[in-house]
Specification:
This protein is of the alpha/beta class and 255 residues long. The chain is built from eight helices and seven strands, in the order βαβαβαβαβαβαααβ. The chain has one domain: 3-Layer(aba) Sandwich (Rossmann fold).
Length: 255
């Protein structure tokens, strides 16, 4: 580890799902600034192309639907063909949201959320892990949520999916730590986005409740999650595995 630049990700290649917007793009931007190459994955080609145009030559993209579980190996192979080095970082960030009372949530709706967050993340982990183990070097990162810590009404499927990452991180870290692969998660709080801003601006009561929970008195930025991701994948965290790190301005521990 270089003490002159301990957050350096030079030589690392990150595959980031849902990397074209929001938290995924914030992670990509920070990793590029830290020296990594990034491959962005998502379903909207135009969004991915625009994101890479902003990120510069260290970025590439692959349009792909991660819920096509049997395509995970092909996705990883395609990503590694685009870059001069293999995938050393996997960021399982892509997700979907369902806001609906628990008693009205249909099994198919519940399953759809679990497939995107849990089964797709597992498939991608399966695809990247053998190479990481062969090289005795790799970092797998799951993007969880504060909804895994606190009860948020009308998101039972999303909460269940994000809570599943706790067990996945614990089991994977136990299996892979001695093989040179670290596994961690980040649990973001309320992060600023156009969608979040629009939703809160149209619901002042909810906005007041949200800000009353955030001890720091402001919403986070995508880069707040991005720099936490850089830390967890950098040499500074070489002895850190099996951890879920809340990045939420104190919302989870707030009164």
């Amino acid at each position: 580890m270089s003490f002159e630049n301990p957050f350096c990700l030079d030589g690392e290649t990150a595959l980031i799902t849902g990397g074209g917007t929001g938290i995924g793009f914030g992670i990509a931007r920070c990793m590029v600034k830290a020296g990594a190459r990034v491959v962005l994955v998502g379903r909207r080609e135009g969004v991915l192309a625009e994101a890479c145009a902003q990120l510069g030559p260290q970025s590439m993209f692959i349009p792909h639907d991660i819920t096509k579980l049997d395509g995970a190996s092909e996705l990883v192979a395609a990503a590694e063909q685009l870059m001069p080095s293999p995938i050393t970082i996997l960021v399982n960030n892509a997700g979907t949201h369902l806001k609906k009372p628990a008693v009205d949530t249909l099994p198919a709706e519940f399953q759809s959320v679990l497939t995107t967050h849990v089964l797709a993340a597992h498939s991608l982990m399966q695809a990247v892990t053998p190479g990481m183990v062969d090289r005795a070097h790799g970092s797998i990162l799951f993007i969880s949520s504060m909804a895994a810590y606190m009860g948020v009404p009308q998101i039972i499927a999303y909460s269940a999916a994000k809570s599943a990452y706790f067990g996945m991180v614990a089991t994977l870290s136990a299996e892979l730590a001695a093989k040179g692969v670290r596994v961690n998660a980040i649990a973001p709080g309320w992060i600023h986005s156009e969608m979040t801003q629009k939703a809160l601006d149209h619901d002042p009561d909810r906005k007041a409740r949200v800000f009353s929970r955030i001890q720091m008195g402001r919403m986070g930025k995508p880069e707040d999650i991005g720099w936490a991701a850089v830390y967890l994948c950098s040499p500074l965290a070489s002895y850190v595995t099996g951890v879920t790190l809340p990045v939420d301005g104190g919302a989870v521990i707030g009164f």
